[in-house]
């Protein structure tokens, strides 16, 4: 039975390497998200909008159980406040299986699991949002949106999930399908609804790297709406990405959680991983990895910048503070970056410091 038929006809189906890498991203991101959110706010919610049956025939747990276990097994669990986990699944047989899987987990007051009656996400989103926010718009809500097809999650629906000031979305973008079908007659309407505009069209001529171009276009659409966003390609071996995971958040703190995840799973570029590369040795010694950040820092020549500004800039380029410090070390060795405050510190680039930048021509020996 083909994969598409298995997903369509069976209650429970076999897992695949892409799924395992995707769930690894979920787990790493949840480790950070829960540590920040569940200790800060009295209540938070995660919505799994396409929950599935909660298990695969070969044993691995589905995303709803991955989320629940991430909470229950977190090292900071004792300090956590209440988390609501709301799950929606369209098919009744899979809803029943999901309930059986949750019944195997320990019941604790801190974790409120709610499996909704069978329903379609597009029809239930507003009700789910009201339930998830618990009557308070400021309640943090993380939406996990992993649909089976493009039409189930148009851009307008993703934007609805970001209506609250502390809403975030982890969305599966089907870049392989976009690559394959973007030039099919009549498909342009589907593409425009999926992207929320026609900015996807610029990616079509790029036959090499088209999948990544589609991911970049989707993220640009989110950025244009004033959101922070990150992306990560899920692939197998040396093949192109089958799909991308897209993070959309109102807070730069979300990017601070996202960047370590991507670099942990892809130590070379932080852009994508496969079942093979997720555990590969670090190749970060190749300075080309941080070229974008190095270029951005050199653009500050002639100015002083606070650490907070530089850290923010690094996060927007999907880099961590350790990458920022490496770049600053490199610039300092060339005489292009100096810490001007504080004068004394235990480390070269402590949080809160101020850095002055110079251009290469400032370093030249032109004295007479």
Biggest sheet features: 8 strands, mixed
Strand order of the largest sheet: 3-2-1-4-5-7-6-8
For this structure, what is the CATH class of the largest domain? Alpha Beta
The CATH topology annotation of the largest domain reads as Rossmann fold
Order of helices and strands: HHEHEHEHEHEHHHEEHEHEHHEEH
Please tally the β strands and state the result: 11
Give an overview of the whole structure.
This protein is an alpha/beta fold. Helices cover 40% and strands 16% of the residues. It has helices at 3-9, 17-37, 63-72, 92-103, 121-133, 155-160, 175-181, 188-195, 210-224, 252-265, 291-298, 307-316, 321-333, 360-363, and strands at 43-48, 82-87, 111-115, 141-145, 167-173, 228-235, 243-249, 272-274, 304-306, 337-341, 354-357. Mean pLDDT is 88; it is low at 273-288. β4 (141-145), α6 and β5 form a beta-alpha-beta unit. The chain is globular and about 70 Å long. It is built from 14 helices and eleven strands. The longest helix is centred in the first third of the chain and has 21 residues, at 17-37. The protein has two domains: 3-279, Rossmann fold (3-Layer(aba) Sandwich), CATH 3.40.50; 287-363, Arc Repressor Mutant, subunit A.
